[in-house]
Write a structure and sequence with these properties.
Layout: H1 7-13, E1 26-42, E2 48-64, E3 67-79, E4 90-101, E5 109-122, E6 130-146, E7 149-165, E8 173-187
Antiparallel strand pairs: 1-2, 1-8, 2-3, 3-4, 4-5, 5-6, 6-7, 7-8
Length: about 190
């Protein structure tokens, strides 16, 4: 598992000098892995701030070398799930429409905007999932590009609210969240 963090960088560094980079066009996809400072503020319970693992998959179509549109699914792992203990595991899941914009076709720096559905899930006995809406804005920078593959670093700010979440032994409540996330994006 510890080598998974370095996989995107290793895959792209070996071929970094072989090409001058192609323009973004056609279908695209990416895998994001990073860490986020996640702040949860429930209506009734105490607020909490934690640094958590962030994972996401995204895909879509580049209609122009400066514009990508797509769908992203991912989120933050608050408590790890366990195959042998079905009552463990908690997280914040996002399913967002994504827009990425590059100021010029040759630019490596880009802006990212996303918004959509958010679910705070919890596998514990007596817990109930909550759903709501959220958005994300961010910056990305293409560090390495070879043909149709690239490694990017990104910084995102996410915010949203969830209704109907019930922690174990608690009451149903609304909850706001915000997060700063930094990570690597392996694009293809």
């Amino acid at each position: 598992m510890k080598y998974l963090l370095f996989l995107p960088l290793l895959l792209s560094c070996g071929v970094a000098g072989a090409a001058d980079g192609g323009l973004r066009h056609g279908f695209w996809g990416n895998i994001d892995i990073g860490f986020g400072n996640l702040y949860l503020s429930p209506d009734v319970a105490r607020s909490r701030t934690d640094s958590r693992l962030y994972l996401a998959l995204a895909g879509g179509y580049a209609f122009h070398p400066q514009l990508q549109l797509g769908i992203a699914a991912g989120g933050w792992n608050i408590e790890a799930s366990n195959f042998w203990d079905t009552a463990s595991g908690e997280g914040l899941r996002q399913v967002f429409a994504v827009v990425r914009y590059w100021p010029t076709a040759e630019s490596k720096l880009y802006l990212s905007f996303a918004g959509g559905s958010v679910t705070h899930w919890n596998n514990a006995d007596g817990a109930a999932d909550g759903t709501g809406n959220g958005y994300s804005v961010g910056l990305g920078y293409e560090v390495v590009r070879y043909a149709a593959m690239g490694t990017h670093v990104f910084l995102d700010y996410s915010r949203g609210s969830v209704d109907g979440y019930r922690p174990p032994g608690g009451v149903s409540q609304g909850e706001d969240y915000s997060a700063f996330t930094v990570g690597l994006r392996l694009g293809f």
